[in-house]
Specification:
about 160 residues, alpha+beta, Trna Endonuclease, Chain: A, domain 1, 6-stranded mixed beta sheet, 4-stranded antiparallel beta sheet, 5 helices, 10 strands, globular
Length: about 160
Amino acid sequence: MFPVYLESLKRMGNFKKDLNTGERAQNYIISQLKDLHKGLKQVEGSFKDYDLVASDGYTAEVKFDRLSEKTNRVGIEYECFGKKSGISVTKAYEWVHVYKLYNQWVYSVIPVTELKAYIKNNWGYLKKASGGDEGTSKMVLIPVQGFAEAFGFYPII
């Protein structure tokens, strides 16, 4: 069960563990959204446009933000290895972000167009950072409280 697994996370740092956590997050989100989008499932194989797809055409990108627990910020990647990535290239309809808000894991479900507009409108105010694998990713950092207030959130229980 994903909520129990989240609380057992102590120290993550390698790709295999991160991938496993990301897959668990996707499965949890599927369980939460399956009544809204029939046939919602993970996309099989290597596919960069989105993570989840439903028979009604719904698509979602799911991100598990483990560093939010330490930084109190949500990181949204927009570039990797000098090329557009993440929010800049996703073809998903919604962006689902799992993050730690104070002492609880939560998730926000945001239309990609709204998240892009928020980033664009606040670009000058948002902190930027490099991170990810070997510091090759560029991202904007949004305080978790501001992110939750802007987009709403659901507790993971």
